[in-house]
Amino acid sequence: MKKFLTWLCLGVVLFVCVAAGVEMGKLPPTYDGANATVSVYELQQDPDSYDDSVADGAAAAIVQQNLANTHAVNDVTSIVFDFRGYDTMGEAFILITAVAGVTVLLRKTDKEKEEDRRNGKY
Fold first, then answer.
1. Taking the CB of residue 43, how many other CB atoms lie within 10 A of it?
2. Which of 14, 38, 42, 93 is deepest in the core (most CB within 10 A)?
3. Which pTM value belongs to this model?
4. How far is CA 8 from CA 5, 21, 68, 121, in A?
5. pLDDT tens, 2-32?
């Protein structure tokens, strides 16, 4: 029964992941770079002298204040590890907890190992 439930859960998760992937494939791209006014390459090469006056909203805050606040040249890295550090740490904790939980659920008990030895499966 335990093996059946394991395979059933894995099948449901696989089905949901495939269905979500198919649905996401139908969505339009969020950013295609066609009307880009900020050159990411030039910004990364020399962030201090780059003209970022055309950036607006949250992009302007990130582009104009990132280097001074975080001392990180890469904006994505600074957001993930400096501005959202606790969130990233929480996500890592959830991932480790999930892996540990799956390991505990799928491991064989001593009783199951002994039965396998008796039946010649081990």
1. 19
2. 38
3. 0.39
4. 5, 20, 51, 23
5. 788 888 988 998 999 899 889 888 887 665 5
